[in-house]
Design goal:
By secondary structure, the protein is an alpha/beta fold. The protein has five helices and four strands. Helix 2 packs across helix 3.
Length: 169
């Protein structure tokens, strides 16, 4: 039986291949313990692009007319803390196109859908989540269990067998 493993990053600028070192390490350790690495099916949940353009636009706007001190600190505030601020769910009636919360959840859903297709829709699901990623997955699961509609039990997080967090707020 396959084990479906979703890996979700935290706040801040992330590369598309953010999960590769973790996936390689876990696969190697699993194999060294006698496991069949083909039973592990990984899927990164890469939600950073949802905010990337908005954060770049904000940075360009802030730095356009001013030579700022503490550039590294300011970039951290825009790229990392900006993620947490932007992720907050909007009040009812707000424009859906501005709802980063829903856009990020669509990325999670799409990643879990791909994982379900590769591992099986009823495969046990383990989520490895860093920082804000743990909040995102927790909210996604709550929303799915409360009112979600998705095509497979895995996509609805009904097969969630483990939720491992790293640096969870």
């Amino acid at each position: 039986m396959n084990l479906a493993i979703g890996v979700i990053h935290g706040m801040g600028s992330q590369d598309k291949d953010f999960a590769e070192p973790l996936i390689e390490e876990l696969t190697e350790r699993f194999e060294n313990l006698g496991g069949d690495p083909n039973e592990l099916v990984f899927e990164p949940v890469y939600w950073a692009p949802v905010l990337l353009k908005k954060e770049r636009d904000l940075w360009n706007l802030v730095t356009k007319r001013h030579d700022l001190d503490y550039t590294k600190l300011r970039k951290f505030v825009v790229n990392a803390l900006g993620d947490a601020i932007a992720y907050q769910p909007l009040k009812p009636g707000a424009k859906k196109t501005q709802n980063v919360y829903r856009q990020i959840h669509e990325v999670v859903r799409g990643s879990l859908k791909q994982l379900a297709q590769r591992a099986g829709g009823d495969a046990p699901l383990v989520i490895l989540a860093h920082s804000l990623g743990s909040v995102i997955v927790s909210n996604y699961c709550w929303d799915m269990w409360k009112q979600g509609s998705a095509s497979s039990p895995l996509e609805r997080a009904e097969t969630l067998a483990g939720f491992i967090t790293f640096g969870s707020p």
